[in-house]
Fold:
Amino acid sequence: MKSSLFYIFIFFIFGFANCQKKSLDLIDSIQTHYLRNKNIQDSLLVAKAHYSIGEIYRKTTGQSDSAYTYYHRAEKIFRKLNKDLELGMTLYGIAVIQKNEKDYLGSEVTSIEVISLLESLDESNKAKQYIAYAYNNLGIVYDELEQFEESIKYYLIALDIKRNLSGDFKASIDNSLNNLAKTYRRSGKYELAVNEFEKILANEDLVNQRPDFYALVLDNYAHTLLLSKKYDELPELYLRALRIAESISLDNYNSIIINQHLAEYYNNKGEKDSARYYAYKAKRISDKYHNDDLLKSLILLSKIEDGEKSADHLRAYVKLSDSLQKAERNIRNKSARIRFETQQIEQENIRIARERMWLFILSSVLLVSGVLIYIIISQRAKNKELKFAKQQQEANEEIYNLMLGEHEKVEEARTLEKQRISQELHDGVLGRLFGTRLSLDSLNLNNTTEAIKTRGQYISELKTIEDDIRKVSHELNTDFVSGAGFIDIIKSMVETQTTVYKLDYDLNYDDTINWDGVSNKSKIHIYRILQETLHNIHKHANAKQINIGIRLENNVICLKVKDDGSGFDVNKAKSGIGLKNMNARIKELDGTLHIASEKNIGTTVSIKVPTQYL
Structure:
C-alpha cells in the first residue's frame, strides 16, 4: 500500500497539471497526511511524499525554489536508505530545475550522476526510462550552451533508449524528436530539422491526441521553413498552429511563441501592422509569466517599433533581464546554500562516524587485548595447576613408594624373625625332644606291662608335639600371598586412624583383587579417599562403629564405608575442601562417588573405580 502511494501522487500530479489551485490543495493534503502526521514513522513514505510535492511544484506551479527544497529533502532520505531508483528520479527533477534556472553546469553534473546511479541497477524499465530522460536533459543543456554536436549526440542516445523501452513511450519519443529537430535548426542543419519535424507531423492522430504539442511542432516546422527561406506554406502553417493552440485556450502558453514567429514573419516582409499585432499579442500573454518569453516579446517589439516606443521596449527588456538574472541568481544561491548546508551536515556526520569507528576500533583492541591477557593469565594458572597436580602426583607416588618400602622392610624383618624362630624350633626344641624320645625308647627295656604302657603314652605325646612344632615351623617359613602388601597398608592405616579416633571397625576385603597389577595412581587415590572418609566421620559424624568393604565387581573396585553416626541432609550440605579433593581424585580415576545419609541413622560413602592395570 505504501509503495503504491508514490505512484498515486504522480497520478494526481498529471491529473491537476492545468489547475494550480488544485495542485496547491493536493500539496496541503500530502503534507497533512504524511509530513505533519506524527504517527508516520516510515522514512521511505516521508521521502516519497517530499518527492511528490517537489514534482507538483515543478510541473504545475512553476515554483522552482519550493520544488528544489522538497526534492532535496527527499534526496537526503533516499540516499540514507540506499534507494537508488528513487534517488535517481529525484536527482532528475533537480537537474531539470537547474536547467530551467540556467544553472547549466549544475544540471550537467546532476544529470550525469543520475545516469551513473541508475546504470548500476538491474536493467529495470523504470531505471532505463529515467536514464533516457537524463540524456534528453543533457541534450537541452548542451543546446543552450550552443554545443550542438554534443546536444545531438545525447538526444540520439535518449531516443535509442526510449525506443527500446517496454510500454507506450510514443509521446516521450516525439518530445525528444522535437528537441533534436530544434537543435538541428539552431545549428543551421535545416533539412535534417525539417525531416524530423515531418516524422512527428506524419502521425495524423497527433492533432487529436496532443493538440497542444501538435501546435508547437507545427510552429517549429513553419519557423524552420522560414529560416531556410521556403515561404510557400507560410504564413498558413503558423496560422493553423495558432488556431489549434487557441482552441485549447485563448491564452495558451504555446501561442506566445507562435505569435512571436508570426510577428517576425510579417516584420521580415515589411508588414508592420501585422507584425505589431502579433508581437503585442505575444507580449500580453507572456506578461502573465514574466519569464524569458516576455524578454523575447520585448526585444521583438523594440525591433518592430520605431523611435521612443522602441526605446521604451528596450529599456523594459534591460530592466526585466536584470530582474530575471537576479531571481535566477537568488535561486541558484539558495540551491547552493542548501547543498552547502547539507555538505556541512554530511561532513559532520562523516566526522562523527569516523570518531565512532575509531572508538569502536579502540574498544575492540582493548577488548581483544583483555581477552588475550585473560587467556594468557588463565593459561599460566592452568599450567601452574597442571604442574602442581603433576608434583602432587609425583609426591603421592613417592609417599606410597616410601610406605610400601617401609612395609616391605617390616615384612622383611618379620620374615627374618619367623625364620629365626623356625630354626630355633627345628634345631633346638625338636632336637631335644628327639633326644628325649630316644632315651625313653631305651628305657623301654623294662618289660613290665605298666611301665611299657606309660612309656608308650609319653612317647606318643612327644611325637604329637614334634609334629605340631614341625608344622608351625613350616608355616612360619612359608611366603605370604602375593599382593597382600597394599591391603596390609590399608589395614595399618585403618587400625591407626580408628585407634586415634576411638572407633570400632570391621574391614572386609576381596582376596581376588590383584593389587600388584593395579596402578600406583589408583592405589594412592583409594588410600587417600579412605583416609579422608575416616577423617570426616571423626570430625562430623560422632560415630561409634564403621564398616569398611572392598570388593571387585566386573573389573570395578568398589569401596563402601558405612558409619552409625548422626547423618546429615545431603542436598543442603556444603561441599568442603575434603569432599572437593575426594571428587577431584574420583574424577581423575574416571570413577563415581555417591553419598547417602539419614539423620540419626548414619552415612554411607560408596566409591567405584575402574581398575587401571599396569
Notes: The longest helix spans residues 307-442. Residues 148 and 186 are 8 Å apart (CA to CA). Residues 1-18, 478-483 have pLDDT under 50 and may be disordered. The beta strands are 504-509, 545-553, 556-563, 592-598, 602-610.
